[in-house]
Amino acid sequence: MATDLKVEQEFSKVIRERHSVRKYDPSWKISDEEIKELLGEAILAPSSSNLQPWRFIVINNQELKEKLLPVANNQQQVVDASAVIAVLGDTEAYRNAETIFDQALEAGFITPEVRDMMATNTYNAYSGMSPERLKDIALVDGGLISMQLMLAAKAKGYDTVPMGGYNAGAFRELFQIPQRYATVILIALGKAAVEGRPTVRLPLEDVTHWNGFQA
Ligand SMILES: Cc1cc2nc3c(=O)[nH]c(=O)nc-3n(C[C@H](O)[C@H](O)[C@H](O)COP(=O)(O)O)c2cc1C
After folding, report:
1. DSSP tag of 20
2. Ligand 1 atom closest to Cα of 77?
3. How far is the centre of ligand 1, averaged over its atoms, from the C-alpha of 124 (Å)?
4. Nearest protein Cα to ligand 1, atom 1
5. pLDDT tens-digit series, residues 139-155
6. How far, in Å, CA of 38 to CA of 13, rounded?
7. Cβ 84 vs Cβ 62: under 8 Å
8. Nearest to residue 73, comparing CAs of 154, 161, 151?
9. What are the two backbone dihedrals, phi and then psi, of residue 171, each rounded to the nearest 5 degrees?
10. Which pLDDT belongs to residue 11?
11. How far apart are CA 152 and CA 78, in angstroms?
12. I need a surface site. Which of 26, 33, 142, 144 has the fewest CB within 10 A?
């Protein structure tokens, strides 16, 4: 169908045109409403048992960005981009199981019996996991939301760069992050002053194994 093809082309364009942008126009501001809209699209990402462990800190206060600058290895995009979105992962997201399955019940997506079963089973399964496993899950889900956020941003004409280059300990201290939340990544969001440089990818055949792992 013609409409389907158009959507596919647009998506294909978005993923091809997203590049990490490190030089931003400091005079360009993204509104809180626009940021909310973006995050609203990002949170449609999948997550383990739909527990949605992602948490965001939107940092668009200039003074705060200046404080973040040394914590983020003095990467200039931290202060020049309109906002930095810190993505965190709740390692105890299972504590929200009841709330989430209640929501699904209210929406008419599940029956009361399924709600009870899912809420109990999910809570029991996750609360019995090791802290390492819970952190792994929060990081995987945190990666998915981060990518979705960056693509949603590109689709709306904004630019981003994910940043793992920061001092997580100093970041936790600056924002007083409770131990329960894992730090996932910082994402600068704004309007490019200089386009992101093109990058290469390893050949697909070098990174793909079919029906088994060939060393
Ligand atoms: C987990 C992760 C951490 C990264 N950390 C940084 C960073 O601290 N600073 C930076 O400028 N780019 C950072 N990048 C961006 C990568 O350098 C970039 O994604 C890669 O070179 C491919 O380029 P592209 O995003 O333009 O396709 C990071 C990317 C990822 C996925």
Report:
1. B
2. 11
3. 37
4. 164
5. 999 999 999 999 999 99
6. 18
7. no
8. 161
9. -65, -45
10. 92
11. 20
12. 33
User: Rounded to whole angstroms, what are the CA distances from 172 to 167, 168, 205?
Assistant: 9, 6, 40
Q: What angle do CA 46, 52, 53 make, to 5 degrees?
A: 125
Domain-located, residue 133: yes
Pocket of ligand 1 (CB under 6 A): 19-20, 22, 75, 161-165, 185, 196, 199
In a domain, 96, yes or no: yes
Range of the domain at 179: 18-196
Q: How many residues are recorded in the chain?
A: 215
User: Tell me, what CATH number does 58's domain have?
Assistant: 3.40.109.10
pLDDT band at 215 (very low <50, low <70, confident <90, very high): confident
Q: pTM of the prediction?
A: 0.96
3-state SS, residue 113: helix
In a domain, 152, yes or no: yes
Residue 120 lies in a domain: yes
> Judging by beta carbons within 10 Å of its beta carbon (0-12, 13-18, 19+), is residue 166 exposed, middle or buried?
buried
Distance (angstroms) between ligand 1 centre and the Cα of 166 equals: 12
Q: How far is the CA of 8 from the centre of ligand 1 (A)?
A: 25
Number of structural domains (the chain) is 1
